[in-house]
Each structure stands twice: as structure tokens, then as C-alpha cells.
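As a next step, the fold was encoded as C-alpha cells, giving this record:
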Amino acid sequence: MPTARPDRVRLVVLVHRQEGMSLEDFHAYWRDEHAKIFTSVAIFKKNILNYEQAHANVDALKMMKEAGATNIEADGIAIFEAASYEKIFEVFADDDYKKIVIPDEERFLDRSKFTALPCDMAPVYDDPS
């Protein structure tokens, strides 16, 4: 049975766009502009080992709905990986994050709808190819 990795943790955050913003504009801004701003902050570079954005795929959501699956209400998922949860939470407590990143997030995200899940990673399968 797989066990959790002792050297890595992840925080998974469901994100929602600001009301009135198109999904296309949201994805473009989050991917192309916000990512540059967020990753430029010193504490991010110091503490975060991996940052991924999962952008909702409208066509796949439609296929899931047609198949009878329940879809979550979110426009994307931000995934933060670090050596510990403390390292991740240090980023969000940092003064530069508060001064630089939060004002940018407020341009395109509905921060009141953030839903987060801290996850211990237990690798089950990794394709060697």
C-alpha cells in the first residue's frame, strides 16, 4: 500500500473568476499575467517547489454532464507543492504577497469563493515513459 511522501505536500485551491469576466479572459489573465506576478515574489521562489494551474475545460465538463457525472462549480484549480504546509502558509502570510499578489487576485478572482484542501501525496502509479 502506498504511503504519503514525507518530503512533499500540496494545497489544492478551487478558484472562481470575478462576476462578469468571461472564462476565456479569466484563463488568459490567470495563466499569462497573474502567474508572472505571483511567481516573482521572493517568498514564492523560496518556499514553493511546484505551482500548477488546472484550467476548467468546458467541452470535457459538458461530456461529464452528459454522462451523468456531477461537476464542481469552479473555473480552475491552483495547486501549490512545498516541503511542508508551513512553507505554503508562509507564502500567504508574507507582506509582499499581501501587497502585490492579493490586489492582482482581486482583479480577476472571486476570493470569497476560495475552497482549499491540504493534501498529503501518496504516489500510486507513475508512468515511467
Q: What stands out?
A: The chain has a mean pLDDT of 92. The CA atoms of residues 9 and 120 lie 5 Å apart. The beta strands are 9-15, 48-55, 76-82, 115-120. The chain has five helices and four strands.
